[in-house]
Write a structure and sequence with these properties.
The protein has 392 residues and is mainly alpha-helical. It is 80% helix and 0% strand. Helix 1 packs antiparallel against helix 8.
């Protein structure tokens, strides 16, 4: 499941670095290229929720289905892009075909992390679930680090070469899944019998915190280049170098932090979440007042995101009963898609209004969420045993 999630996220991450130059080759505008990315995020959200709760096939067959369909759309996009680039002029409806492919691709991709996460949750106990979710988070982090590196390494072969390679890797993972993982139709029916609401008092705080964290992450990724260039007066080359090294350091710290937390704080996922929210608040305030310490702030943000992302998903998982794990997994995946869809649009809109707005607003909301978490500790928070019976 770690390798399946890693391969899936890598296939998403290889697309973002190539969409700019690929759009220029195909005669697409910057707005159209942005639509291709945003559409993927929106339907990742919808697909994660739908496939995470689907019950018409066993988990294994369902995961194989969404992987095969996703691989087909990725390969079709790459083939069509190569074909269009070889023509003298672009077809008038080319953008709409690409948009349809990215919509279908995002919808099926959402099922990969949702179903894989449900497997991890069902294979672990409350005592070991944090370590299992750390593997899931590490796969996400490594995918977003290795994906752009793979695009850069294969740029000399062709702009679409990373997409073909990612599709082939996922196809290998599908074959391995078919051979190595037993069928579980009975377990699937038992899990799907429970319908969990995102407003359930046991998990709604964690889901809100997760949504805020993922939106903030995407806002930072989209606006930090503009912010640093405008604040420090750097040229494009120096800004790109600083952002590249900084994001690489932050991504590495996300992985390291989650490995550390899963080993030494595995029984305290809610404490992880609070630590992550506190560090994130300080890092965002630092961006507004101590920007000359850019690399240190990137590292701090990476540590904060590492604690917070693992803390929110693990806390939501241990807050519900065993047969409700599939519902939680679908919500966590939908939240990740929501961040990919809402973050870029919200971040650019706020930055246009004022360059400090994205970071000050996110810092305020995260700080208030942290305070709500401390207040929640003193309140009578429902547990799995108090809502519908004892934990199995």
């Amino acid at each position: 499941m770690f390798l399946i999630v890693l391969s899936g996220v890598l296939s998403i991450a290889v697309f973002n670095p190539i969409i700019g130059p690929l759009s220029r080759d195909l005669g697409l505008s910057e707005f159209q290229s942005g639509c291709l990315v945003s559409a993927t995020g929106l339907f990742w959200l919808l697909g994660g929720y739908f496939w995470g709760r689907a019950a018409f096939l066993s988990s294994k067959r369902l995961l194989m289905l969404v992987m095969l369909a996703y691989v087909a759309t990725v390969a079709a996009f790459a083939w069509l892009a190569d074909y269009a680039a070889s023509q003298a002029q672009s077809a008038p409806g080319l953008f709409w075909i690409f948009l349809a492919l990215r919509i279908v691709s995002g919808f099926f991709f959402g099922g990969i992390p949702a179903i894989a996460q449900a497997y991890i949750m069902s294979w672990t106990t409350p005592e070991t679930r944090t370590r299992g979710m750390a593997l899931f988070g590490t796969a996400n982090g490594l995918g977003f680090v290795l994906g752009p590196a793979m695009s850069g390494a294969m740029a000399s072969v062709g702009l679409t070469a990373p997409m073909y390679a990612a599709a082939a890797l996922l196809l290998v993972m599908k074959i391995w899944l078919w051979l190595a993982v037993p069928n579980d139709s009975e377990l699937q029916r038992e899990r799907s019998a429970s319908r969990l609401s995102p407003l359930d008092p046991r998990i709604r705080y964690y889901l809100w915190a997760g949504l805020l964290i993922t939106v903030t992450l995407n806002i930072l990724q989209v606006t930090i280049g503009f912010f640093i260039q405008d604040s420090l007066g750097l040229n494009a080359e120096a800004t790109t170098r600083l952002i590249g090294y900084g994001l690489a350091a932050a991504g590495g710290m996300v992985v390291v932090t989650q490995i550390f937390a899963s080993k030494y704080m595995k029984r305290r996922p809610e404490r992880m979440l609070r630590i992550g929210l506190a560090i994130l608040t300080l890092a965002l305030v630092g961006l507004l007042s101590l920007l000359k310490l850019t690399y240190a702030l990137f590292i701090a943000a990476g540590i904060g995101f590492g604690f917070a992302l693992l803390g929110f998903s693990s806390s939501a998982s241990v807050a519900v009963r065993d047969h409700e794990q599939r519902g939680v997994a679908s919500f966590v995946t939908a939240i990740q898609g929501s961040g990919a869809f809402v973050g870029p649009a919200a971040g650019t809109a706020m930055y246009t209004a004022h360059m400090n707005a994205p970071y000050s607003i996110c810092a305020l909301l995260i700080g208030l969420t942290l305070l709500a978490g401390f207040a929640r500790r003193r309140a009578d928070v429902p547990t799995p045993a108090s809502v519908g019976g004892e934990v199995k």
